[in-house]
Amino acid sequence: WIEGVLLKRDVFSTVERGRFRSDDGEVDAVLRRLDQVPWWSYVPARHLFARERRALALARDLDVGPKLLWAGRQALVRGFINGVALHLAKPHGDAAYFRSAKAALRRMHRAGICHNDLAKEQNWLRGSDGRAYVTDFQLAACFKTRSKLFRIAAYEDLRHLLKHKRSYAPETLTSSERKVLARKSAVASIWLKTGKKVY
């Protein structure tokens, strides 16, 4: 790892951008590390770290987000996506972007991955190729079966994507997408009334 610039430090991890050298060469990358996490937040930090590591490993070949380049017990390195966060890109009227976002979600869900944090515009990127990518898999959940919990989480991933589509390209919403937007899952309704206020 060749250290670059600090991107973020909080009670759950330190995130840096730099260069990663492997047998295949050197690439731009992002490092998440736990060695500077306070003792009192280490257990939840490890839990979030493990969730991200597992989801990135499953999504490695899906081309929906950063590739997992290396992972250890207290650090991981993921590829760097050349792109801009949704709230900065502001893809007004860009139907192609939202088609690619929906296709990315479909590939993730087929692999059993639900992101669980797609309400944040920072977690959606518009790549330099114009396509949609997702990042920050700390809250992601991986499922082996299409259980009821999986279906609820996948539905909420889609609903959050469609909320962004409604903000930037409302004229491209289909009638079925409008129905999804009009109906929150029971879990989402409970979260809004309880946990989200604490979060």
Summarize the structure.
This protein is an alpha+beta fold and 199 residues long. Helix content is 39%, strand content 25%.
Number of helices: 7
Gyration radius over CA: 17 Å
- Major β-sheet profile: 5 strands, antiparallel
Low-pLDDT residue intervals, each spanning 5 or more residues: 195-199
* Shape estimate: globular
Beginning-to-end CA distance, first to last residue: 33 Å
Strand order of the largest sheet: 1-2-3-5-4
- Mean pLDDT, to the nearest integer, reads 92
Number of strands: 10
The helix/strand series, from N terminus to C terminus, equals EEEHEEEHHEEEEHHHH
* % residues in beta strands: 15-25%
Helix amount, in percent? 25-40%
Structural class: alpha+beta
Characterise this structure.
The model is unreliable at 195-199 (pLDDT under 50). Helix 4 packs across helix 5 (175-182). The relative contact order is 0.12. This protein has 199 residues and is of the alpha+beta class. The strands form three sheets. Strands 1-2-3-5-4 form a five-stranded antiparallel beta sheet, covered by helices on one side. The chain has a three-stranded antiparallel beta sheet with strand order 6-8-9. The protein has helices spanning 42-58, 86-89, 95-110, 148-168, 175-182, 186-193, 195-198, and strands at 2-9, 14-22, 25-33, 68-71, 75-79, 83-85, 113-114, 124-127, 132-134, 141-142. The radius of gyration is 17 Å and the shape is globular. The protein has seven helices and ten strands.
